[in-house]
Amino acid sequence: MKGQNKLFIAIIVALLLGVGIGGVVHVQYPESAEPFSKNIKLLGTVFIRLVQMIIAPLVFTTLVVGIAKMSDIKMIGRVGTKAMLWFITASLVSLFIGLVLVNWLEPGHVTKLPIQDAAAAEDLLKSSKGFSLEDFVKHMIPKSLFEAFATNEVLQIVVFSIMFGVALANLGEEYSKPVVKLFDIIAHAILKMVGYIMWFAPLGVLGSIAAVVAMNGFEIFKVYAVYLRDFFFALGVLWLVLLLVGYLILGNRLFELLRRIKAPLLIAFSTTSSEAVFPKLVEELEKFGCNNRVVSFILPLGYSFNLDGSMMYMTFASIFIAQIYGIEMEIGQQITMLLVLMLTSKGIAGVPRASLVIIVATCSMFGIPPEGIALILPIDHFCDMGRSMTNVLGNALATSAVSKWEGQLENTPQEV
Question: Any transmembrane segments, and where (predicted)?
């Protein structure tokens, strides 16, 4: 745990340094803010690209090995069913919490935000057009495994890996054992790489935070104080619900799990990327005592189907935009919106700024001006920090809970 604590402290120091350096540049050298932001942001870009480099091979090898080692197809079906029930329930609860709190707190009625130029939202408006069932199917089923690897389409890799793993499990040990052994060795080698890459995380955090603060300064927090306050309050309520359910299932071991995943949570918060901590999360969940087969199976699925923070944000932001424009929505319309968001949001983890794309598409569907997304773009980075961290917590709890239900959670933490 010593190395993990050092990493955690290094990330905290980098976070504070990033805010300080960004603030100094914004106040003292405003003319240099844009080039400074562009250059220092490269530190964050390098870190995230290093992580992205290993995500596809890690998901592929761990998932194939996990399923092939199960060998029992009934167990695969049982674990998959329990995982999907958790994902669907958690998504509905997250959406519902966002819906209830945005109606109660009414941040759109209290806050006086400047109506910004909709040009800022043009890219999102373009990318939201035609987000149909056909696009969802194409996004889910790969036409080429190599294309899925090249573009880091996690859901497509998951689909292929499940089919390949089931096929290996049915081949018989004589044929499958050498292949499974090879993939197992590759997976462990990649996890070893995770340890090296994570020590670049503090620099990545410093670069990401300094870039945002240098460009926007501290004023951004004042202008959008009400929206940020209400959103993070809603996130806090969601965390309480998730942790309460986690405690009911895991008991006192929940606190051990939180200690294990504190570095991944902080990295996700600082870099706004839950994807960036996937490899580290795999490692920590196995150390916590989760069966590696269950981790390998559930965690990649969770990254496509179990994004609790993003779910809550979608209802919160959609109704907020309606409130800004003075559009009153009946409770029936809001529940319909919740169900639409539930369906359209599945499998979009690989889409850049996926939550915003879905919000734009949903606003258009319900007669809310989609250009309103421009109102929240300036602070979306800060909201993304909270929802990315929440996504990581949700997936860690889901994996641990299913491991416990399957009797596959070791009481004694293991070192991997």
Answer: 7-27, 47-71, 83-105, 154-172, 193-215, 231-250, 331-349, 356-379
Task: Please list, in sequence order, all residues whose beta carbon lies within 8 angstroms of the beta carbon of residue 106, skipping any fewer than 6 positions away.
Answer: 323
Contact at 8 Å (CB) between 43 and 200?
no
Is 156:148 a contact under the CB 8 Å cutoff?
yes
* Listed residue (388, 41, 386, 14) closest to 216, CA to CA: 41
- Number of Cβ within 10 Å of residue 112's Cβ equals 8
Number of H helices, E strands in the chain: 20, 0
Say if residues 186 and 61 touch (Cβ distance below 8 Å): yes
As to burial, measured by CB atoms within 10 angstroms (0-12 exposed, 13-18 middle, 19+ buried), residue 352 is exposed
pLDDT tens column, 275-327: 778 888 988 998 898 888 888 888 887 877 788 888 888 888 888 888 877 78
Tell me which amino acid residue 15 is: L
Q: Give the span between the Cα atoms of 11 and 202, in whole angstroms.
A: 5
* Helix-helix angle 373-405:262-271, to 10 degrees: 160
d(CA 291, CA 303): 18
273 neighbors 388 (Cβ within 8 angstroms): yes
